[in-house]
Design goal:
Residues 280-294 have a biased composition (Low complexity). The chain has 303 residues and is α/β, with parallel strands linked by helices. It is built from 8 helices and 13 strands. It has a 7-stranded mixed β-sheet with strand order 1-2-3-4-5-6-7, with no helix packed on it. A 6-stranded mixed β-sheet has the order 8-9-10-11-12-13.
């Protein structure tokens, strides 16, 4: 299907009825907005006070309505460090996010401050602001004339990934479970063996006509997500096979074919091998040792 493309030069694009996306050059983050009778719901707040101030100014060009709700799709700085500029809104996030921000937020702030004088000044203003409304699996936000579903389909990019589904518009904001402008990001807090079943659950939120807004890059469709599911599955299965065959971790990237450039997969291999070691023994099957049994779908509105 044809999907509206979020303008890479920076403007609001209506991706569904009352649903908007805007790409920002900084980290190519794609921010989402859902307009309701009671106000605006903003999906992710960007990477610090300066970027959040820019976002707030851009929101004022979109609507006169106040920002009443914010959703953090996961804890990473480029999605949450702007939260402090939205302290008057109710901020939703997965139940793991406050703890991770408390544990790692200051370290990330210090790293960013070393990037440049501008970043140092910005990080000096930063007030780490975790979500004040957390949930484990599913939450519903009432915007007055429509509802928005918040779904934690499982662990993948982080342990607290959240998808934002707008049933009446058939739009889903994916966070970094789906990325368009680069390969999925396997970081030191990712779960490469769980990402496939998590993305399988996420795919269950979609219809053939769904519009999917990734955490980074242009708007995509169900077919793109299905293809990315195949790639992250290939990564997980390759890690599992190499582990079972006794291939040393340090040789894994060199001895196999991968769907992405190997320089993007070092953490995937490291984390995957670690999780397999911690499981006690290699296991077969695409769900992996970390995935809960039988977890494939969630009861959602509009389905």
């Amino acid at each position: 299907m044809n999907v509206p493309e979020a303008d890479p030069t920076g403007s609001w694009t209506e991706v569904g009825s009352g649903c908007f996306a805007r790409r920002y050059p900084s980290f190519d983050v794609t921010v989402g907005v859902v307009v309701g009778a009671g106000g605006l719901l903003v999906v992710d707040t960007r990477g610090g006070p300066r970027e959040a101030d820019e976002l707030r100014a851009d929101l004022a060009t979109l609507s006169d309505l106040p920002v009443r709700w914010v959703v953090d799709t996961h804890w990473h700085f480029d999605h949450t460090f702007g939260n402090g500029r939205f302290a008057d809104a109710t901020i939703y996030g997965h139940e793991t996010v406050p703890g991770v921000l408390a544990e790692r937020g200051e370290e990330v702030r210090a790293d960013l401050a070393r990037r440049s004088t501008e970043w140092a000044q910005d990080m000096a203003e930063l007030v780490l602001t975790p979500p004040d409304r957390t949930f484990a699996s599913v939450a519903v936000v009432d915007l007055g004339d429509r509802v928005v579903e918040l779904v934690h389909p499982g662990r993948g990019h982080t342990d607290g990934d959240v998808a934002v589904r707008v049933p009446d518009a058939d739009v889903v904001f994916a966070g970094d479970l789906v990325e368009e402008s680069g390969p999925p990001a396997y970081g030191d807090d990712s779960f490469p063996l769980e990402w496939p079943p998590t993305l399988e659950i996420f795919t269950g939120l979609l219809t053939p006509s769904s519009v999917v807004v990734p955490g980074h890059g242009a708007v995509v469709d169900q077919a793109f997500v299905t293809a990315q599911f195949g790639d992250v599955t290939a990564v997980a299965e390759t890690i599992r096979r190499l582990f079972q065959e006794g291939v040393p971790e340090g040789e894994a990237l060199a001895v196999a074919e991968w769907p992405y450039a190997t320089e993007r997969l070092a953490e995937a291999v490291r984390r995957g091998y670690r999780h397999l070691r911690e499981s006690g023994a290699p296991t077969a099957g695409p769900a992996g040792p970390e995935a809960g049994p039988g977890r494939r779908s969630l009861p959602l509105l509009g389905q």
